[in-house]
Amino acid sequence: MSVARSKRRLRGALNRVLVVDDEPDIRELIDLTLSRMGLAAACAGSVAEAYACLAEDDFQLCLTDMRLPDGDGLDIVRHVTENYAEMPVAVITAYGSTENAVAALKAGAFDYLAKPVGLEQLRALVKSALNVSDGEGREYPLQSLTGESSAMQHVRVLIEKLARSQAPIYVSGESGSGKELAARLIHTRSARAGAPFVPVNCGAIPENLMESEFFGYRKGAFTGAESDRDGFFQTASGGTLFLDEVADLPLPMQVKLLRAIQEKRVRKVGAATEEPVDVRIICATHRSLRDGVEKGSFRQDLYYRLNVIELHMPPLRERVEDIPGLVDALLGKLCGDTVPRISAGALQALASYPFPGNVRELENVLERATALRSGDAIEAGDLQLAPDDAGGETPGRGSETLDDYLNRLERQAVLEALQKTEGNRTAAARLLGVTFRSLRYRLERLGIE
After folding, report:
1. CATH superfamily of 3-130
2. What tens digit of pLDDT does each residue of 195-235 get?
3. What is the distance between the alpha carbons of residues 105 and 346, in angstroms, rounded to a whole number?
4. Which of 274, 316, 321, 407 has the highest CB neighbour number within 10 Å of its CB?
């Protein structure tokens, strides 16, 4: 189909799509599919033709092949990102070309399709892309990420950008720093906001149940499978799958997860065929995935597939100026309409404390203080912060490195829990508020027999 003919068809259309591919058959297939969806397509066979179309008409979406006669799809991705920031652009890659897909997503592509183009996946991508909003009029609780520090302002700006993409996101940060909250905000701001947000704690699932929990199973697939059941991927269809503590996944499951992400298809346990899935993956862990790759506990190919874009959540000790605002917000959450006053001394003590547990620990401290206070105000003594942990340049850790200090605190907490439960690891994990698998990992890491 000629460019001129395509342009004539576009006039008067509500949603316009630019299709760039040097293979006439693929252009025709995509054009026909879009027409049946009530969309108009302009087709171009080269980078130059694509630029000419973009200059003369308005489009709501661009689909481009990676290999073109006079350049590649990344050129178009960058051109669209720089000059038409509100228009999503998706790329069509060769089968199994993970490197190209990741490169396109990092360059700003909304999503990708692999050849041969599956029509179900094409329709799902187009529907998702054309629902992308500029956010006007949408209720969006970004203010729940309390804080006006430069670190939190950067986080909020990045969330705005990430919400418009389909690229996998790796949210890094220490325990209690708000990783799941950030993931939920990205989902809430995205075109997938009307679909499910499914959080999964990867460290809480027994290894022998992981495949059925993630991908579902057919009736009779194993003993106890009395009916068909969907897994996390099917439950999150059209929405976002949040994989928390993804570093805890065993290597065999990492292989299966990698295939599901790359091919956008999963096979239920006991099923003969795969089925397409449309989910966005956001993962998080308080551990370093890069360290896991170096130690051989995390696959390098999965690391690069998940870590397309990293969102780092800063620890509380790096944004001390946000503590007063967080205190007000948390006390409002804990106490409702009867918020107690907090003294200047108490605020100073909080500002001097390193908070290894971050915002989650701050909430626990305030909850304890509201219960223990004897007057109308929360005083420094009500916080019950250890004297060694308040004041000084390096509170509570002397000349120790931060990692050594946090490991010492963690070791002490684990040993106390084991002592209270007389060595019962299951009970100790429950007491610590972690999974048995997570406790076992900590015992190995800390060298506790």
Report:
1. Response regulator (3.40.50.2300)
2. 999 999 998 888 888 999 999 999 988 888 888 999 999 99
3. 46
4. 316
